[in-house]
Amino acid sequence: MRSPLLRQLTRGLPRPARSFVTSARFKVNANTPTQPEIASKIDSVAESVKVNPSKQPDASNKHHATDKRIDLSLATVEAVKPASVSHRAYGLSIAAPGVPTISLNYTYLRDICKCPQCVDRYSKQRNIRTNDIPTDIRPRHIKWDGEHLEIQWATDIPGASPDHISRWHHSYLKKPTLDTHDLHDASNKPVTWDRKNMEEHQQWVSYEDYMTNDAKFAASMRNLQRTGLVFVKDIPDSREEVEKIATRIGPLRNTFYGMTWDVRTVPEARNVAYTNQFLGFHMDLMYMNEPPGYQFLHCLENSCDGGESLFADAFRAASKMRRQHPKEFRELTERKMGYEYVHEDQIYYNERPVFELDKSSKHFRHVNYSPPFQSAIPIRGKLRFQPLKEALDVFTQILESKEMTFDLKLNPGECVIFDNRRIVHARRHFNTSTGSRWLAGAYVDTDAVLSRFNVTSKKQPDAWRAADPLKHVPSVNKDKKTA
Ligand SMILES: [Fe+2]
Ligand SMILES: [Zn+2]
């Protein structure tokens, strides 16, 4: 039963013109006090009526009262029909036409308050800590209009202002975190490709559009996100351009190769940093703790015979292997390979499985494949070399098959951008007696690229949607497991 004091108090709650009190317990009259006045009244009265000394864990702290019946009776609810709210001791559910029902706990809700008291409006940093939330956090007033949920708290964080109101749009409550690494989310999942798909649907954007047209840049980012491989053309003939192209997405990743680097071979050079031999499929810098996420290769010269670039979607190949060779597939998810770079002034080493899966969904997170940089195979327990060798053999055969391999010869003025954690790259042998080959390279970390994807999709939603390759090429993603 509610106390007469409470009944008297709750009569004072204001009623906005568009809404009505669904709980219908509490009538509203016209002479309403201001919100802070109500808040302080409720707080002081609530304290005086809800405390049951025998149950209260800490009589000195009003935020630890425990009588749930009284707490519940304190909460008033406004819902604009046909939206509806149901609330219980520890949480509430909101529903409305066109809005999926959302059920949330009060502690959770208090924690995700984004109001200017809780989150600094400029720095976006939180002013509250999760452990500051009272164990008996309860609302005193809930308002839901089918779009926004508002809560005023009966037992707020100590020190919170009495006029504190938490307010969220339902879309935020439905998806409060932006897990940019969530590759299996329907809106993000990789659209995997093979040679045929890539030959027919490779994505080119002109330098001019990429640098200056936000919609076309967004389209290019959307394709990069889905397929992991896009191309820029008509780039001015300058060594500076690779940096400009990369930093349009995010800051350059520095490594011991420098902020940008060159893959350059000139005819009969005496001292070449790079050979002109075939370089098999690999990913870069697998020996680093955080290998660079995206790679940029801008072609400045390519007049040699040969020197074509090869690419393959390792997610596609791994996915095929999962279906056709599950035992060998498992071997490459369980066994860690070692990758190293050991030179006089650099010693790098890391171990990772070839197939790195999301722990819960088992979708691919990364493929880590780089035979040129492989170290001695790390031995943990019994050495089972043969199964590993067989598994690697199966994967390599799929990856290097004609069906999987997309090749093209980059021309001067063209740049490839690809996901280094998913797409393997290789280079055919080239003949330096017939010309020269010069690519300028750069890396941008995954964090920065995922951030760019998110921002771009928000700022250019139409271009982002229209460019989705899933729309144009439904056949390429038949393989659900790849996502
Ligand atoms: Fe490479
Ligand atoms: Zn707040």
Automatic annotation (TrEMBL):
InterPro entries linked: AlphaKG_dependent_hydroxylases (IPR050411), GBBH-like_N (IPR010376), GBBH-like_N_sf (IPR038492), TauD-like_sf (IPR042098), TauD/TfdA-like (IPR003819)
Region (Disordered): 464-483
Gamma-butyrobetaine hydroxylase-like N-terminal domain: residues covered: 93-154
Any GO MF annotation of the entry: metal ion binding
Necessary cofactors: L-ascorbate; Fe(2+)
Domain TauD/TfdA-like: 205-443
Gene3D superfamilies per UniProt: 3.30.2020.30, Clavaminate synthase-like (3.60.130.10)
Protein name stated in the entry: TauD/TfdA-like domain-containing protein
Organism: Penicillium frequentans
Family: Belongs to the gamma-BBH/TMLD family.
CDD domains given in the database record: CAS_like (cd00250)
GO cellular component: mitochondrion
The keyword Repressor belongs to this UniProt entry's keyword annotation: no
Domain of life of the organism encoding this protein: Eukaryota
The UniProt record lists the keyword Iron: yes
Keywords: Carnitine biosynthesis, Dioxygenase, Iron, Metal-binding, Oxidoreductase
A biological process term (GO) from this entry: carnitine biosynthetic process
Species lineage: Eukaryota, Fungi, Dikarya, Ascomycota, Pezizomycotina
